[in-house]
Amino acid sequence: MQTANMAPLTQPKTRIYFLDKGASHGTDGHLKGHIASCNPDGSDMKYIVENIGSAPDGITIDVENEHIYYTNMATLATDSGFISRVDMDGQNNIVIVPQGVTWTPKQIVLELSQPNKKMYWCDREGMRVFRANLDGSDIEILVKNGEGDKDRADATNWCVGISVDQKRGLFYWTQKGPSKGNKGRLFCAGLSMPDGETAENRSDKKLLLDKLPEPIDIDLDIENNVLYYTDRGDPPFGNTINKVDLNTAGEHKKEVLVRKLHEAIGLTLDIRAQKMYFTDLNGSAYSANMDGSDEKVILPDDGDLTGIVCVYH
């Protein structure tokens, strides 16, 4: 019990971390992406890693071990993507999943609640969903939609956003489809592969929503079993933030929470504060309540923003 002579307990504070792929920086033709962080209102901007020199897209954080994980799309349309880990102070930036493993790694998430901690990510042109240990070892393919250039040319095979519900033993992912094509889909499957099945033919793969404009990143309110996602397609249902109540029986329906974004991409939930933070490729970062109200621009025109994550520390 706290007394007058005891120092007040320090409550963890929310901090936002985000990626800028750097397409608007410099004039020498090279991307100069960076990792940055700020307070939830956009104040106290700090650059963690500058001049990454590739196309960073997805970001997640292991606060306990003070590690930032981020994906790099690298050179598009080539098997050159990779995943890196860096300390939260910007030191020890290392590649943990090298080129030649994942074509175009996109959103990445960590599952830290189990002793055997894992990272999960989607591979767009690779048409796969992956899982691996936090050091990049023991790589598994959980979903594989095709192989070769012919399959790769079909954007309905492209996996982009991902989230994991360890409580219910499920993971969710988006397949974006062609740009503004209204062929995007949302799927789920079990964290354990069905006996005798493979990433190509698993029978537990379930379609939750289809004919979406262009769904991108995902986050989950696990306690309430509600999924949130960004959509980059055309208005009125694209360039939006949406939610799907996964508790409903039968056909799932989406609810549009925020509209009129500019190439919506990254999304993260602050469940404790009932806030969500999201980005668009036009270079802005936003906050809103989880019902979509009180939308605010917290970083206006700050570059070419992609992944975003909020943490408490």
UniProtKB/TrEMBL annotation:
InterPro entries, sorted: 6-blade_b-propeller_TolB-like (IPR011042), Cueball_EGF_LRP_Nidogen (IPR050778), LDLR_classB_rpt (IPR000033)
SUPFAM superfamilies (alphabetical): Calcium-dependent phosphotriesterase
GO cellular component: plasma membrane
The organism's place on the tree of life at top rank: Eukaryota
GO molecular function: Wnt receptor activity; Wnt-protein binding
GO BP field: canonical Wnt signaling pathway
Protein name per the record: Uncharacterized protein
Species this protein is from: Dipteronia sinensis
